[in-house]
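S.,

As promised, the flavin-adenine dinucleotide run. Input:
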Amino acid sequence: MNASDYLIVGSSHAALEALAAIRLADPSGSLTVLTRDRHLPYSPTLLPYVVSGRSDPAKATLRDAAFFTRQHIRFETEAGVAAVYPGAHELALEDGTRWHYGKLLLATGATPAVPPIAGLEAVPFHRLRTLDDSLALRAAIGTARRAVVLGAGLIGMHAAENLTAAGVAVTVVEPRDQVLPSYFDPEAAEHIARGFAAHGVVFRTGHSAVAVAYAGAGFRLTLDDGAVLDADLLLVATGVRAEFGYLAGSGIATGRGILVDAGMRTSAPEIWAAGDVAEAPAFPGPATALAGILPEAVLQGRTAGMAMAGEAAPPYRGSVPRNTYCFFGQSAISVGTGITGAPPVGAELVTRRDPAAGTYWRIALQDDRLLGIAAVNLPLDAGILCEMILRQVDLAPVKPLFLDQPCATGRMLMSRLWR
Ligand SMILES: Cc1cc2nc3c(=O)[nH]c(=O)nc-3n(C[C@H](O)[C@H](O)[C@H](O)COP(=O)(O)OP(=O)(O)OC[C@H]3O[C@@H](n4cnc5c(N)ncnc54)[C@H](O)[C@@H]3O)c2cc1C
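Predicted complex:
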């Protein structure tokens, strides 16, 4: 049987940060990375640029083979984990190979969630999560004329922009009433949708696809209002789900992800989880959340790696949602909570807009502390805003100034606090 003191499953941001933390504390313990992917580690965040052709696929690589040799790390590709046996400190790969571990990190991320649409599994649709997905989509763009994108989240919108730039006619279908519903309020979303519409993108918000079938050389999609859309490229970007099906029968506690505490420990001894697969404390608690963003995967991976190597890791402080987004030369940013959906009880919502400048921002406060902010075409710094939320900075002394000029006021406040 194969054996490793430290066994890491997954080879993306959380895994790489964990193995760096382990190697800092323990240069000689045996360390193995098992990944389902066939490539060296790469960043999924760069895949939209691989699709558009702005980035060479090789530039998405995060570590080369020599790195693993230098660090005395065994790196196994096409090694998908199929089952974990916590009592025996073992796991099994999809090909039946067994591994014994001393300490185990599960960093298997997330995978696209495919909606139940009649006929979908019978047609060759695209998704965008892996490097191979991006290469397939890039190749398809070269011959496509009409595309349908299912889902107006960040990945669907990125792809819609890339397809449009490549001369493909794009229709985006989104069941909610606005684009980017998880990040922006309806007015900010309207700004963004207008930017896309000006470039010819058609939105069918408030509608879902119910069926898809081959039609001629392409596909025909039927929507819930009976409308039909013909396309020769179909991208499904309707969200992701945490990838932990291999834990069935293991007894490890799961919810929407693998449940972990502030030390990234799962319910089983000597097993940690980090990154998009982990359901960790949300800031300020007591809720848990799937963070789903790169900086949190990095932080969680470091926390887990330090703990695995016996180092005293600061407890994970909980996730704060944050996304910056560029579209057709414009920018948008969303940080924190309270901006979308019904505001929390007692929250104060303030909206500012300058139609001449094309700017818009909405701020959610609770007890004069920042809960969240969403803005279009305002040069805000996500790091500063995130820090203001985490530190629960009292904005009362500068409130009118912050509401009118969140960018300059946030910088001024944090430059004092960071000193
Ligand atoms: C197109 C795209 C754009 C994005 N843009 C941004 C952005 O701009 N900003 C941002 O903050 N975040 C962005 N994200 C999200 C960000 O990429 C993720 O938060 C981050 O990659 C999570 O890292 P992770 O290590 O948890 O897992 P993942 O990156 O999901 O990697 C999971 C790893 O586990 C492996 N794996 C899965 N199942 C198994 C198994 N059973 N056995 C073995 N190995 C397995 C996979 O092969 C992979 O190596 C984007 C994601 C995508 C897809």
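The mean pLDDT is 96. The two ends are 53 Å apart (CA to CA).

- D.
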